[in-house]
Amino acid sequence: MRVPSADDRGAWTAVDAATLQALTERARATLGTPWPTPLAHDFARFYRDGDRDTYEQAVWARHERLARATALAAVTLDPVWLDEVTDGVVLFCEQSTWCWPGHDDMHAQHGSVLPVVTDPCVDLGAGEVAADLAWIDHVLGGRLDGHVPGLRARIRHEVDRRVLTPFTERRDWHWLGLDGRVHNWNPWIHSNVLIATLALVDDPARRQRLIGLITEGLDRFGAALPTDGAIDEGIQYWWKGACRYLEALEMLGATTAKPGVVAFPHRVHLGGPWHVNHADGPARPSYEQPWHVLHRLARIYGDKEAEAHAVAHRRPGEPVAHESPGLGYLLLALTDRDWAAVRPGGSPLPRDVWFPSTQVLVARSEAGSSAGLTLAVKGGHNDENHNHNDVGSFIVARDGAPVLVDPGRPTYTAQTFGPHRYEIWTMRSTWHNTPTIRGAEQAAGRAFAARAVVAGDASLTMDLAAAYPRDDIRSWVRVARLDRATGTVTIRDSWELTPGPAGPTVIHLVVAGDVTVSEDRAEAGGVTITWAAAEADTRPVDPDVRRGGSPHGLPCTIVVRELDDPMLSDVWGDRLTRLDIDVTALGPVGTLELTVKETR
């Protein structure tokens, strides 16, 4: 455990003053008020109306209040904060379940819409509570023994019965990855179980058995990580998955991760707060990420660019961390003197990035600068973790801020991970920068994938035909390219469809900010987007397929999507605009060239 106990007064009296002041102000604002209460009827709402967020927000507010109190108790040893910690700990110990509504399997196992206290489930939420209680025991244990005798025994009892025992006795948890499908739950939960084991398990034999199971599970995640370090869920899930994996290895005394894992955050950085986003990840994650952890891991793995990216997020004079990422991260930051002492520089912003495993390319005009246009484009398939149907989609950012965008995802509900996921508009290809071909959008499943994918110099070429559930699409070749000489992005679509009647073929562009549209162009976010039919690429064409259409007058329809979900509106504002360029008139064989350049 890297955090010193509160008995180490040298460590805790040296806490950054700005952080201490901010924590104190927020903690005093809630001191003496009722604690957030996760209510039973809010838990049951997951099964009634699909809402899971109301319950979870109450739980997270409880976590954050307890984190503030724990940090202040460690710094001050004030009985007021020790009492606050005691109240928060007992409230968690008396909470019927530590699971989040969408994860607890009591409905499948018992037909209940409320927690079944005799059959605890180990999920992300349970792991988070177990780790919080373990950190509290580790940091404040000696003080709690004198202030509230018996509290530590309660902590051990609850963590054991709710997490450690079911973790060892039930080995059918889906997140173990025994079926070959490994995702961020694996390291997220295993790392929290490891923290609880190291802090709370005194019996050497049991401790060793737990560590063995944890290591076995982490090895499955490590084996599934691609060598290029790509995370198909995006940057938000790097923090919860790959980062947790690297931290767990560190706690186990191993630094054997595949090259590139620690580099992922800076390799998908667009500039400022913006990152390349695919799947459920947001384009603008919260600033309150545990950058100090990336800083430490980058130094362990000797990645200077990753270290520079972390340091770029350190703001001198401002707090070193916030409680929202979790108690453990807060305690680590407060006692990390290296992090408190760093002075920011620039993020590396690599000129060229290519992830072969996920078929994602990022290209910018110049390394180290977000100025001008940056292109991000993906191939991949439609069975990625937290998948959206987005094969062939692209993002164009100007000065680091996306203009042609991937919307991300709304607040999670019961529908999000259910059979009707792809009825949610943000998950569908129609709300990504992809075509709808003869009325068909892309389908979900690994078979629906890009083929003939070739990465070139600031360009990606791929055939999108197989991403669609139709047998009359012979090819749809998309070439996305950044021309560094002119600072221009071009997207060239060339298609060959079999003859015959069919629905409309439309190329979608999802645009952020204010948009103005004329006949063959649009302006938004400091860029001008133009489109026109072009001569098709020279390639064999079936003689019974006729070229058709006119190079002029392609209809463009404007669809405005008002945003009232904070998961979307906090990123994009009150709306997104979709341009639907109808290329049906170009016939079964055609080419459209889209050009994006900075507005002069």
Automatic annotation (TrEMBL):
Looking at the Swiss-Prot or TrEMBL record, what is one Pfam family this protein matches? Hepar_II_III_C
Chief subcellular location equals other
Indicate what this protein is called per its UniProt record: Heparinase II/III-family protein
Superkingdom is Bacteria
Query: Which lineage is the organism of this entry classified under, starting from the top rank?
Result: Bacteria, Bacillati, Actinomycetota, Actinomycetes, Micromonosporales
Species assigned in the record: Actinoplanes hulinensis
- Please state where this protein is localized: Cell envelope
Domain Heparinase II/III-like C-terminal: residue ranges: 353-457
